[in-house]
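Collaborator request, handled under Task 6.
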Amino acid sequence: MELKVVNIKGEDTGKTVSLNDAVFGIEPNDHAIYLDVKQYLANQRQGTHSSKGRSQLSGSTRKLGKQKGGGGARPGDIKSGVRVGGGRMFGPTPRDYSFKLNKKVKQLARKSALSYKAANNLITVVDSISFETPKTKAILAMATSLQIADKKPLIILASANKNVYLSARNLKGVGVVTVSELNTYGILNAKTLVLTEESVLAIEQNFKA
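C-alpha cells returned to the collaborator:
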C-alpha cells in the first residue's frame, strides 16, 4: 500500500511511502488482539482493593445467640459476617491481575491493529513533526490542516520529542507515543494514526516477522 506524504500544513510533498504488507496488510487476528488488549487493561489495575474478614477484626469470640429459633441466619460471635459491623464475607483482597503473553502473540496483535487502520484508510503520513517550543496552538493547527482535529488522533514518533509531547498534553483525545511505546490498545483506541516517515520505517523494523 502506498500513501502520500504531506507536511504538517497538510500540503502534498510530492513523496510517497510504501507500507509493508507484512506489517500493515496482514489478515487481522481478532483473538490475538483480544488477548493483548486484555493484558494491557489488566496491567493497569492496581489490585490494592481490600476488606477485612472476621479473622482480621478484634472482638470476643463468644457466641451471642442460640443456634436455632432466631428466625434468621445462624449467629456466631460479634465478628460474624451476618452481624452489623462484622467481617465481610468473601470480600476483595489485594491481588496481581497481570498475566503472561507470548511476544509473538503481542506482535501479531499489533500488526493486526495496524492492518485494520490501514485497510480503513485511517493512517496519515507526514514528513516530520517538530516544534521549536511547546505550543498547544501548533498541534491544533496541524490537526486542523490534516483534517483530523475531531478524529482522536494518535501521533506516533520514531523517537521522543519533548516539545511535541508537551504541545499535545492539554488536548483531550490527542495522544503522542514513540514506536517503542506503541501498543494494541492505543492503536485501536485512536480513530486515526499520524506517522512520520521515520516512524513508518521504525515500525516495520520492530514488527517485521
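The cover message to the collaborator said: "Helices lie at 21-24, 30-44, 103-119, 136-145, 162-168, 184-189, 197-207. The chain has two domains: 2-45+99-207, 47-96. Please let us know whether this matches your experimental observations."
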